[in-house]
Each structure stands twice: as C-alpha cells, then as structure tokens.
Amino acid sequence: METKTFQAPAIHCGHCTKAIQTEVGELAGVTAVSADVDTKQVTVSWEQPASWDTIKNLLEEIGYPPAS
Ligand SMILES: [Cu+2]
What we know:
Layout lengths: L1 E6 L6 H12 L4 E6 L5 E6 L5 H10 L7
Antiparallel strand pairs: 1-3, 2-3
The structure holds copper (II) ion (CU).
C-alpha cells in the first residue's frame, strides 16, 4: 500500500474536503482519504488498481489539483 500527503490549494471549505473524500474514496483501490480545510492538506492511501496518476487525474478533474 502507498500513502501520499500533499496540498490542494483549491480547498476552501468543508464542502471541498467532503467532495474530495467522496470522489477519491470511490476510486477502485483507494483505501483511505482524509482532507483538512485549515491546512489544505490531503492524505490518500491506495493499492492496485489505483495509482498516483489515477488519483492525481481525478483530483484535477474535480477541480482540486495537487500542488506538487
Ligand atoms: Cu469549498
């Protein structure tokens, strides 16, 4: 399993974090996702068939691109 923590600068309220948790959480292979409004920090854990690319692409699609 892999875990990554990153900033998503577009996060501005609890709705944003909820959207991220719901959308990313529905990706096949994602085992955990948490997002924090104050720090704009997101932590995602995943295993196959998910990959950092699929997670990053989804985040870009829903409007919360990772900062790095
Ligand atoms: Cu918001």
